[in-house]
Amino acid sequence: xxRLNPGGAxxxxxxxxxxxxxxxxxxxxxxxxxxxxxxEALRTTFAEENGHAIQRIAPEASLDLKIVDLGNLPERERQxxxxxxxxxxxxxxxxxxxxPLFRGTVLHLSGQEHALxxxxxxxxxxGWSHGILFRELETLYEAFLTGKSSPxxxxxxxxxDFAVWQREWLxxxxxxxxxxxxxxx
Length: 185
What we know:
Elements: E1 12-20, H1 25-38, E2 44-49, E3 52-57, E4 66-69, H2 75-91, E5 102-110, E6 113-121, H3 129-145, H4 159-169, H5 172-184
Parallel strand pairs: 4-5
Antiparallel strand pairs: 1-6, 2-3, 5-6
């Protein structure tokens, strides 16, 4: 679908998290980079080779966390500027072959108010995964704020492992049953 509408933003998934209180940008950056390290899907790109889509999982990735200070603007202008930046990030396209498919921007609204804008392509995330992202971000940020290392256990499997299992399972009679159901629908 991306090839039919290159540069489109239909499959962009923006997340905006409002934060109150002092923000440690370095602890936030480390938290997001740890999430990238933990989840191969967020480091994956999708290229085309010989007419076939292939996935490439980068061994590591860093996050270019943009920082935008809107704190000097009057309240009304600040909110309008924040909404404009959020809309821009939501519409900015992803290059599936080159990546990254996960971006972050911090909007400083005042000394005690911030917005974290995360944008991801739907090919590497879904709505269900956001709960995991929020829990891990909170856990990691609290740990890194206090100088601790990541308390999260290594992941026993990655999404690519699940996809291989599913492909192996979805053969023969199981495949025919599933196809029959969907053709009937």
